Amino acid sequence: xxxxxxxxxxxxxxxxxxxxxxxxxxxxxxxxxxxxxxxxxxxxxxxxxxxxxxxxxxxxxxxxxxxxxxxxxxxxxxxxxxxxxxxxxxxxxxxxxxxxxxxxxxxxxxxxxxxxxxxxxxxxxxxxxxxxxxxxxxxxxxxxxxxxxxxxxxxxxxxxxxxxxxxxxxxxxxxxxxxxxxxxxxxxxxxxxxxxxxxxxxxxxxxxxxxxxxxxxxxxxxxxxxxxxxxxxxxxxxxxxxxxxxxxxxxxxxxxxxxxxxxxxxxxx
Amino acid sequence: xxxxxxxxxxxxxxxxxxxxxxxxxxxxxxxxxxxxxxxxxxxxxxxxxxxxxxxxxxxxxxxxxxxxxxxxxxxxxxxxxxxxxxxxxxxxxxxxxxxxxxxxxxxxxxxxxxxxxxxxxxxxxxxxxxxxxxxxxxxxxxxxxxxxxxxxxxxxxxxxxxxxxxxxxxxxxxxxxxxxxxxxxxxxxxxxxxxxxxxxxxxxxxxxxxxxxxxxxxxxxxxxxxxxxxxxxxxxxxxxxxxxxxxxxxxxxxxxxxxxxxxxxxxxx
Lengths: 269, 269
Fold this sequence. Notes:
Two copies of one chain form a homodimer. The first copy, chain A, has helices at about 55-65, 115-125, 140-150, 155-160, 180-195, 215-220, 235-245, and strands at about 10-20, 20-30, 35-40, 40-50, 75-80, 85-90, 105-110, 135, 160-170, 175-180, 205-210, 225-230, 250-255, 255-260, 265-269. By secondary structure, chain A is an alpha/beta fold. Chain A has two domains: about 35-125, Ubiquitin-like (UB roll); about 135-269, Cytidine Deaminase, domain 2. Chain A has an eight-stranded mixed β-sheet with strand order 2-1-14-13-12-11-9-10, sandwiched between helices. Chain A has a four-stranded mixed β-sheet with strand order 4-3-6-5, covered by helices on one side. In chain A, α6 (about 215-220) links the parallel β11 (about 205-210) and β12 (about 225-230). In chain A, α5 (about 180-195) packs parallel to α6 and α6 packs parallel to α7 (about 235-245). The longest helix of chain A has 14 residues, at about 180-195. Residues about 105-120 of chain A have low confidence and may be disordered. At the A-B interface, β2, β4, α1, β7 and α4 of A face β2, β4, α1, β7 and α4 of B.
């Protein structure tokens, strides 16, 4: 294992369930935090990213949007002066090639609010107050990903779709939705119950096919889900939010074992 | 294999390279297209999604952003009247709970422009004209993912990061960047070369750790890359764009085999 400080990685205490035994272990998580990209003194975009190489991210983002044509258009990419602020500043030679705010050339996805801690505060304000949540058995959590997978018809054909399944704590699989975007799959699954008249979704948890990002846990929180169970790992901010909201968050749910990152008391035997 | 019409899946003719042999085969791709979500007559957001269940997606999106509180806030979610328009309309009972345009509660990511065909047109206009691209050997493409993987230090520790590596057509690995967001990893990799004074990146191709979405191929196109090589599959719109731009697009590059979705003439022996 690599050692030394790495801004991409953060340590966390978690529980590991394997062969029926639950143990507390130290784990390492991919760091996820919002970054505000500012150009010539004005906020342009906020993206959820892993800290490190923020200047590169800003420069590559502007090039990838066609907003700058090359190195000559950049006078300076400011080192983030205040690390906690999660802001990077770009000074251009003569402005951007076009004003993205004048046109529909960006698309929007999910919320984040003010940077850093603000993202958690947004959710704290917006999400309904936590009520008593029913617990979920470890057996159900362990079997959830394969139950979702068996209903992913388009994945079988393409290998290319994320999925979200919503389960009752008692075990019933309510709905599975697939999409190229992990956030869309969750929006569709939650939206299908909402359009059927059920929302918020107390007593329901989500099983997702990939990683558990902040965005997914935030959507789950706003829908009052018990928690999120993922085949992949969560990010730091996803864990922070789940702990803050008293939600169950499991990752690496594969082959009979899983990690519990938050809400261990909601995982029954 | 499942049969019958499924809006999530589309057929494509591709080349498969396996055990040194190249064959033309029929394949199925996950469909990816932009969807504009409109609320009470006004455009709110555009997201890249897999078609199908658009009403659910719109309802779940609004709930997940805290813009509606439940079913009672929705009067009607319009069936997409014009399929080609890729628009879904939500009519609310008394407006959204807050005006997302008044605040910084959305974050922006990548471009898409006007819906549907417009996305391709945006890139056609913005990307530099195609010049002669050097070809890349199949051997180099097959080895690229493992070369990137071996330099993913944070992935080893967390299992949770996407990566983009940029290679010269001659084989040199120029840079590897990791991030929780696949688009950020590519922005960082491209940005690192741009800040070092090199942009556009003619003669360079990208190897990415996951799927090849439209967004990644668009970023590659705007940077004048030869193409994109992915461990996972591409979406329909990614293939359309790569073909439109004369780019190499390989997917499922694993265990000595790969699929060529676009720019077969750029893959040498």
